[in-house]
User: What shape does this take?
Amino acid sequence: MEYNFDKLIERANTASVKYDLRKQIFGHPDVLPMWVADMDFETPEFIRQAVIDRAQHPIYGYTFRPESYYESIINWLQKRHNWKVEKDWILFSPGVVPALNFAVLALTNPGDEIIVQPPVYFPFFSAVQENNRQLIYNQLIREGDQYQINFEQLEKQAQTARMLILCNPHNPVGRSWTRQELTELGKICLKHNLLVISDEIHADLVLPGHKHQVFAEVFPELSANIITMHAASKTFNLAGLASSSVIISDSALREQYKSFISRLHIEMGNLFGMVATQTALEKGEQWLGQVLDYIFDNIVYVTDFLADQLPKVKLIKPEATYMIWLDFSAFQLPDDELKSFLINEAKLGLNSGIDFGPGGEGFMRINVACPRSLLQQGLERMRDAFTQLSHGNDV
Ligand SMILES: Cc1ncc(COP(=O)(O)O)c(C=O)c1O
Assistant: This one.
């Protein structure tokens, strides 16, 4: 079956964060929203149908996750990522961001040092700071159009830190960390007994030419210290169903985490999230292959468009995720001016680079999981605004 990703779906008035909060977030209800990480593609029909089928049963009483739910996760991780997981290792969380916070609270103490590697998904910062832990930055190193982990600095920081929050693959710079990089990372963590949260929510969004590596699979020697987070939500556009998995193979670490979450009584989660996750993982491979090809073509489209029509904007070519990290530093605009220029002149709603911490200066993040016609519109708005800014010269 061929899926149609060119189809435009009206999302306004669906209580969509991306569309219906534009006035609150950007001050304009008419910016083209290319920010928060959900897709403008329809959630595949087989998932919608499974949710509708369940919704048609007239009672939505208390539910549990059946064996088949766990099997869908186990089979998916084995098949797609060569990672053998046992049922007992899999715990439910109503989202990865809540799980990051639970893990910080359950496994570290107030005042503990927790390392993050900016520019990175900003809820990592609040998971540390709002829980009264100390945020330690191991900023990624930019080498040309690529980002690398600063292993030397990490080695020093690991001497006193308790935990590292790893973004694997890395949002927003789009790195799909290699086995070699993760092995080097693992050695440092093992040497210094560092706990690692490996946020692998983008694991299934690795682009053609790259392969996702599960940190716990690459470096099993450290498995007593790794908490892996996975979800079908980014991959299949199910974020509103708030369902994800926390996977901990070590029984002592798992018990420590469980003893915290059992007090919160969140285990049941949402019936429809469970149905959608299971269906996605059981039936989603073909759709995923096609959506990744489409996203990849969108990235090529952005690359060609910028090279041709807006060469001062440089692009960091993503290896994973459907976000592109765009470098506007050639315009030498202060970050607040860059942001307001893109909102007010280009009428574009993007994520500001500085929100992702040190290293984000001069950057913006654009979400390209949308029909090509929308992407084209967004890029044309950007080009036209910058052309006006420089009066038609040197853009
Ligand atoms: C690295 C990363 N982790 C977590 C999330 C969000 O997770 P959830 O919606 O399950 O809380 C995102 C969303 O963009 C993300 O990029």
About this structure: The chain is about 40% helix and 15% strand. The two ends are 42 Å apart (CA to CA). The CA atoms of residues 80 and 312 lie 38 Å apart.
